[in-house]
Amino acid sequence: MIDINVEFERISLIKNKKEKEEQQKLLDEIISKNNELCDRAYNYEQKQFINDMKIRDLEFLQSDITKQQLLEKWISIFADDIDDDVKERIYIDDNLWHIFSYKRKNSFEGNKAVLEFDNKYKEKIYIFYQNNENIYMINNASNLKFTDLAGQEDIYIVDESFLWTFIITHETINGPYYYTI
Fold first, then answer.
1. Which of 6, 14, 90, 120 has the fewest CB atoms within 10 Å, i.e. is most exposed?
2. What is the pLDDT of residues 9-21, one digit of tens each?
3. Which domain holds residue 37?
4. Per the confidence metrics, is the pTM higher than 0.90?
5. What is the tally of structural domains in the chain?
6. What would you report as the CA-atom Rg of the chain, rounded to the nearest whole angstrom?
């Protein structure tokens, strides 16, 4: 296993221009292949997640809202009362869940959040992710439990009416969070 940053630094010190270009080209190919592998693995995991959920009688529907519309609505409902300068200081653009980790909203956290989510009656929900464009609208979602979401990161679940939200972060020390209006 190579450390890309170390290799980049090492190559930058090579004095021979031709050798430097050849090694940089090889490193670029490694980075490209690594990104390709990560994308493929992610897409496979998403397909597996959907298949597993369909087995549990969760009905996946075509979303009636775009990712941008969903983000805007989520922020307008769950973070509207937070000043823009505070949003910037807590890096809400990086992770919406920072409104909870920075304690700008009181939410259930950890095991209490999981219990609230698992016990919540869920008819129709949206699932979206912080770092990709995937949006799922799920009907008959009451069977969806926290354990079904194992391995999911920066995943946001919100009911159709935007009365509650459940978030699993990529950081084990933060979350999960459950918040209700």
1. 6
2. 999 999 999 999 9
3. 1-55
4. no
5. 2
6. 20
